[in-house]
């Protein structure tokens, strides 16, 4: 059965009381950076911090309407898991979630907190899905697919209705693509309302499955990615059929561009996004000419990023920008030398984050020590001022940027 605008409108009415019509507004600063009118749909503000609630709730409500449900089972890298677990708990439906073993801890714990039984199995979504189907058959549980299901797609498509209600003159909607449920729903709603609107998908370079399918490319990379929410090796047959008909293009973005986008959204919009959630901004910034002067909507699909990864990412961005650097200073291995160096760095406003000595190797004279100092600074000019001061004081010093 073909997904229709009516299906999506009915889903919107069905789920409206238990999901959030999230903020949708222009970002003045990001618009200036990107060279267009950039509007952000903050799906990271949903209760479980992703758009997945829309499809999951629509599916569960329909199952309830159809009769008694013994229980449901889903496979997910996290966001679909949380959404199914949360709304199943609300509706009194027992839920089991199968997750790959490499799923971020925050998503595993959040899913458990919503009362679901969590099973960790396999290293990929495909392996988790196979195991989930086995459990579904053995325990007579209804399998709730994360994307290859019309009722899931209909729920996800309600995002487009909300955006077009606020900004009916949008030129383009940019959508993260994993299995394709969100973009299939968005494309169906948006293209029916306005056939001229452009729908652009975004995949991460390690998992360009839809891009490859559309362009007849057989090769697929796989591997680790910060955008695990869209790390899908094979889209659904139902979603791919919609994508082939209605999606104008699928762009592939780098890991580094996604890291930059996460950092920008946090520093400019003060909003946390996971890798998949920031992929849309990464695509626009990586392909600025394609979106020049257009009115563009970005779906920030989720915020469920592991805090450890987020902290590491932010520190890496400071290193890449030269805001955190290392100085290598050779000092006399005697009392007071370290404090003299520290004082010199402090005089110029440097904030010392870490210090280590190295005096055990033959490259260092017996009465000397190599001193490595990790320092937070304002900019490249301040780095050079500190380096010049250290050399002025007679120290052999060098700046290590990476």
UniProtKB/TrEMBL annotation:
<dbReference type="Pfam" id="PF00291">
    <property type="entry name" value="PALP"/>
</dbReference>
<dbReference type="InterPro" id="IPR036052">
    <property type="entry name" value="TrpB-like_PALP_sf"/>
</dbReference>
<protein>
    <submittedName>
        <fullName>Threonine ammonia-lyase</fullName>
    </submittedName>
</protein>
<feature type="domain" description="ACT">
    <location>
        <begin position="326"/>
        <end position="402"/>
    </location>
</feature>
<dbReference type="GO" id="GO:0006567">
    <property type="term" value="P:L-threonine catabolic process"/>
</dbReference>
<dbReference type="InterPro" id="IPR001926">
    <property type="entry name" value="TrpB-like_PALP"/>
</dbReference>
<dbReference type="GO" id="GO:0003941">
    <property type="term" value="F:L-serine ammonia-lyase activity"/>
</dbReference>
<dbReference type="InterPro" id="IPR050147">
    <property type="entry name" value="Ser/Thr_Dehydratase"/>
</dbReference>
<dbReference type="GO" id="GO:0006565">
    <property type="term" value="P:L-serine catabolic process"/>
</dbReference>
<dbReference type="Pfam" id="PF01842">
    <property type="entry name" value="ACT"/>
</dbReference>
<keyword id="KW-0663">Pyridoxal phosphate</keyword>
<keyword id="KW-0456">Lyase</keyword>
<dbReference type="InterPro" id="IPR002912">
    <property type="entry name" value="ACT_dom"/>
</dbReference>
<dbReference type="GO" id="GO:0009097">
    <property type="term" value="P:isoleucine biosynthetic process"/>
</dbReference>
<dbReference type="GO" id="GO:0004794">
    <property type="term" value="F:threonine deaminase activity"/>
</dbReference>
<dbReference type="InterPro" id="IPR005789">
    <property type="entry name" value="Thr_deHydtase_catblc"/>
</dbReference>
<dbReference type="InterPro" id="IPR044561">
    <property type="entry name" value="ACT_ThrD-II-like"/>
</dbReference>
<dbReference type="GO" id="GO:0030170">
    <property type="term" value="F:pyridoxal phosphate binding"/>
</dbReference>
<comment type="similarity">
    <text>Belongs to the serine/threonine dehydratase family.</text>
</comment>
């Amino acid at each position: 059965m073909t997904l229709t605008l009516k299906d999506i409108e009915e889903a919107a009415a069905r789920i409206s009381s238990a999901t959030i019509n999230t903020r949708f507004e222009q970002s003045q600063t990001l618009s200036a950076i990107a060279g267009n009118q950039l509007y952000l749909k903050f799906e990271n503000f949903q209760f479980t911090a992703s758009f997945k609630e829309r499809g999951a709730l629509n599916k569960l409500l329909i199952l309830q309407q159809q009769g008694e449900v013994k229980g449901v089972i889903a496979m997910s890298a996290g966001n679909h898991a949380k959404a199914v677990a949360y709304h199943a708990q609300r509706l009194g439906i027992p839920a089991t979630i199968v997750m790959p073993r490499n799923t971020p801890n925050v998503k595993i714990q959040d899913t458990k907190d919503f009362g679901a039984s969590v099973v960790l199995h396999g290293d990929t979504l495909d392996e988790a899905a196979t195991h989930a189907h086995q459990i579904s058959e053995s325990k007579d549980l209804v399998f709730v697919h994360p994307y290859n299901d019309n009722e899931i797609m209909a729920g996800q498509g309600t995002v487009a209705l909300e955006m077009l209600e606020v900004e009916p003159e949008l030129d383009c909607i940019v959508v993260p693509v994993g299995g394709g449920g969100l973009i299939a729903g968005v494309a169906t709603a948006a293209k029916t309302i306005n056939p001229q609107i452009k729908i652009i998908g975004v995949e991460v370079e390690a998992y360009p499955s839809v891009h490859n399918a559309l362009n007849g490319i057989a090769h697929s990379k796989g591997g680790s990615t910060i955008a695990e929410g869209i790390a899908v090796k094979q889209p659904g047959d139902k979603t791919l059929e919609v994508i082939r008909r209605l999606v104008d293009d699928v762009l592939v973005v780098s890991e580094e561009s996604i890291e930059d986008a996460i950092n920008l959204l946090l520093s400019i919009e003060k909003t946390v996004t996971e890798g998949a959630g920031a992929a849309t901004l990464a695509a626009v910034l990586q392909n600025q000419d394609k979106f020049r002067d257009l009115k563009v909507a970005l779906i920030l699909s989720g915020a469920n990023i592991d805090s450890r990864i987020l902290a590491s990412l932010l520190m890496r961005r400071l290193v890449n920008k030269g805001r955190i650097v290392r100085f290598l200073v050779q000092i006399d291995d005697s009392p007071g030398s370290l404090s003299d160096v520290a004082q010199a760095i402090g005089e110029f406003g440097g904030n010392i984050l870490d210090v280590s000595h190295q005096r055990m190797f033959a490259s260092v004279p017996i009465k000397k020590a190599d001193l490595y100092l990790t320092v937070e600074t304002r900019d490249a000019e301040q780095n050079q001022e500190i380096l010049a001061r250290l050399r002025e004081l007679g120290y052999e010093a060098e700046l290590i940027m990476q």
